[in-house]
Amino acid sequence: MRYQAVESPNAQQDSLPVPPRKVLHSIDARLNALEPRLSWFYARLLLLTGVSWAIQAAELVLFDFTRVLVANDIGMSTLVLQVYAASIFMGSIAGGPIFGHIADQFGRRIAIVIAMVFSLGGLAVSARANAGNILIVGRIVTGLGFGGQLTSTVVLVRELAPRSMSGRVVSLLDAFTGIGGLFGVALAFAVAPRLGWRTTYLAACGLVLYAIVLRFTVPESPRWLASVGRTEEACGIVEKIEHLHGIQASGDNTQKTELEFTSALESPS
């Protein structure tokens, strides 16, 4: 199969939605060639994504540790309370595949942002609930976001890191689970008994604003960008990572990648 010659960038995008493997391999090779060390770029990436991970853990712990307060206020039966406790996992089962599809279609970063909105949106629904069934719905919505954010965040962090340190960055990301869990315990035992569980839930919903921070501070996966034909953006992100990793940006790598892309259009895949 040969790629069709094109007369304009728009026509090229229509006829070639996915770039040749050569370009993807070039982006992948440049990232994998990075020295496996925690440079400023990766420290910042882990901090930004780790905070969102911690927010998820805090929300999960807050839900669990305030069940008694919620049950006493709403008047739930033992069966409803048990379903309420398990409903977040019902949502999480669907959240992973749904947001995995979103991540493949629209990008890893946007999937994380939307999942975070779902997760905290479910908390807001729970805060306004006056019956057990509404609480369960809110918790299922939270589960959708919970499952989607965890998987999308892991994929993004792994794709931004060289393969030789992908395990390390994911394990460091997971450390934020403990930090968030401790924060959730503090909310459940120090804040909720004084202000009430509804007020505590609504206050925690304010953390949804952090989704805006993620949208404008965390880079998209260059591997995903290259896979959908956005090679200039992919090369720009890789150059930034290389620069913050101590590699001088001469432009040679970018030119080489773009050259491979152009030449591959006229040669068999």
UniProtKB/TrEMBL annotation:
Domain Major facilitator superfamily (MFS) profile stretches: 45-269
Localization: Membrane
Entry keywords, A to Z: Membrane, Transmembrane, Transmembrane helix, Transport
Transmembrane spans: 41-63, 83-103, 110-128, 134-157, 169-192, 198-218
Listed GO CC annotations: membrane
UniProt keyword Transport, yes or no: yes
Keyword Chloroplast: no
Membrane topology field: Multi-pass membrane protein
Pfam families: Sugar_tr
GO MF entry, a single one: transmembrane transporter activity
Protein name in UniProt: Major facilitator superfamily (MFS) profile domain-containing protein
Organism: Phytophthora nicotianae (Potato buckeye rot agent)
